[in-house]
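2024-03-11 09:14:02 INFO worker-7 job=invfold-0412 stage=load source=structure_tokens
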């Protein structure tokens, strides 16, 4: 007798279980209105509360500059992949309006959340999917990055699609499109972040073998094909621009502080108080309440798995989602020596499924305890939402202040004659150069893309500005250039621009 997707079940048992799951899902109502409501709320709340005034960040400026007419393309360092640039291209290539880009990406993010959860409609009940979507969307990290040109949220969507389609392909032989959907999800994740796709595909490959899934050899082939297809451009670019795949991987590791064995869990905990990047993360932990949900997450996941085991339904699906989520989190928790909350978005998206299952089941006790359970869950969620809103509001407010200050610095450079075609180097050159319409070129660091001699030579035929902080000194070859004070940038005051090759400054202001 042939084995099926769940060890120890007969083929007849598998069919009966699948039908029971379908009947249960149908009994809970169509997922369409549930998921549509969650996705629409996600988009509208972000556009109303977070997106206004949110200018492009450092990484966003790099990705958008590859297709934007506003400024020459910034240097594309080894770890980056071009998937997010392809995603923003339809708008970024046509307009320099940040508002248009934000609206486009926010709507796309809402549609992406809907599609990623819609894939699971035959696997989990509609209330569970709606709860999972709401939990994931309400995290300040998800809400903050909803309209940003950053890849991590899209890796999360690709991961949800890949795992959901894998389970459908493994459990439902009649689902002809599920294997292709799994490969597409993995390829999409790889296009955004190649290494994440590898960590996504590995547990799915193991699950295909362990579960003795229907057509498991085909699933293994399609997983490998999805990773290869998504990584193809990144690998080809490694040989064209970086001296080979090994060289690019080594440089990517160097830029990330040399990958190795680290314990970065505490870094991620501290970063949850609203830090976009915690590197180095030797900062005080001022708001412990912002990380309570992080500590509760493993317990809530375990409770969801236990509830599924007790119900003898949906257990395999939630186990696979949990293992895949843990695999996606592991490299960032234990091999990277710093923290950025967005790194764990794919893991949070998958782990939201068992958490949601446990919460929904908790609200279905005997009649005498139902009100107590619902009241407790509602109170906990309300407190959670309040904390998440405070954090995202604080993070967005910092970015808005930076946006205004960067705009003033760029305008000052333009008034000094640093106008296209121009080059900006030095302190925060990438964000400032993009706003000023200039190319950004750095002489050292992660974005090293020009030699001092080449930069000095450029000043003979185009405007070049070297930006220096309050305690910094210009390079020797630029010390004789005229120095101009610039507006401050956050806590960074005393900025100066050493400018050469510019026409006379605009004195009409």
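2024-03-11 09:14:09 INFO worker-7 stage=emit residues=509
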């Amino acid at each position: 007798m042939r084995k099926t997707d769940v060890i120890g079940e007969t083929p007849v048992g598998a069919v009966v279980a699948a039908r029971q799951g379908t009947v249960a899902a149908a009994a809970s109502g169509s997922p369409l209105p549930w998921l549509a409501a969650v996705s629409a709320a996600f988009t509208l709340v972000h556009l109303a509360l977070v997106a206004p005034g949110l200018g492009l960040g450092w990484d966003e400026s790099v990705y958008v500059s590859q297709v934007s007419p506003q400024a020459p393309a910034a240097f594309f360092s080894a770890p980056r992949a071009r998937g997010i640039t392809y995603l923003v291209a339809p708008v970024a290539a046509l307009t320099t309006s940040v508002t248009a880009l934000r609206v486009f990406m926010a709507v796309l993010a809402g549609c992406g959340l809907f599609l990623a959860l819609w894939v699971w409609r035959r696997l989990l009940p509609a209330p569970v999917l709606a709860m999972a979507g709401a939990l994931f969307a309400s995290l300040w990290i998800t809400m903050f990055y909803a309209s940003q040109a950053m890849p991590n949220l899209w890796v999360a969507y690709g991961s949800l699609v890949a795992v959901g389609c894998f389970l459908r392909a493994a459990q439902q032989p009649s689902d002809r499109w599920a294997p292709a959907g799994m490969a597409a999800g993995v390829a999409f994740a790889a296009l955004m972040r190649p290494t994440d796709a590898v960590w996504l595909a590995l547990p799915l490959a193991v699950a295909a073998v362990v579960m003795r899934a229907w057509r498991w050899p085909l699933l293994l082939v399609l997983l490998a094909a999805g990773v290869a297809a998504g990584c193809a451009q990144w690998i080809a670019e490694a040989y064209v621009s970086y001296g080979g795949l090994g060289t690019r991987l080594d440089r990517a590791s160097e830029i990330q502080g040399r990958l190795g064995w680290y314990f970065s869990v505490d870094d991620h905990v501290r970063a949850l108080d609203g830090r976009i990047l915690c590197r180095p993360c030797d900062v005080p932990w001022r708001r412990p309440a912002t990380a309570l949900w992080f500590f509760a997450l493993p317990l809530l996941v375990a409770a969801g798995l236990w509830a599924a085991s007790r119900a003898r339904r949906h257990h395999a699906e939630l186990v696979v989602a949990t293992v895949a989520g843990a695999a996606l989190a592991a490299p960032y928790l234990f091999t990277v020596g710093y923290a950025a909350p967005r790194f764990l978005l794919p893991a949070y998206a998958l782990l939201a499924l068992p958490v949601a299952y446990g919460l929904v089941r908790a609200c279905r006790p005997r009649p005498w305890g139902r009100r107590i359970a619902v009241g407790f869950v509602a109170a906990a969620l309300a407190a959670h939402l309040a904390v998440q809103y405070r954090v995202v509001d604080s993070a967005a407010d910092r970015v808005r202040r930076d946006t205004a200050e960067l705009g003033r610095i760029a305008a000052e450079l333009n008034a000094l004659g640093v106008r296209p075609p121009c080059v900006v180097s030095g302190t925060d050159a990438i964000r400032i150069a993009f706003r000023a319409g200039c190319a950004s070129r750095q002489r050292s660091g992660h974005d090293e893309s020009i030699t001092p001699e080449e930069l000095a030579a450029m000043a003979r035929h185009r405007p070049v500005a070297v930006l220096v902080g309050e305690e910094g000194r210009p390079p020797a070859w630029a010390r004789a250039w005229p120095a101009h004070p610039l507006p401050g940038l956050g806590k960074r005051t005393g900025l100066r621009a050493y400018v050469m090759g510019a026409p006379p400054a605009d004195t009409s202001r």
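2024-03-11 09:14:09 INFO worker-7 stage=report msg="The two ends are 85 Å apart (CA to CA)."
2024-03-11 09:14:10 INFO worker-7 job finished
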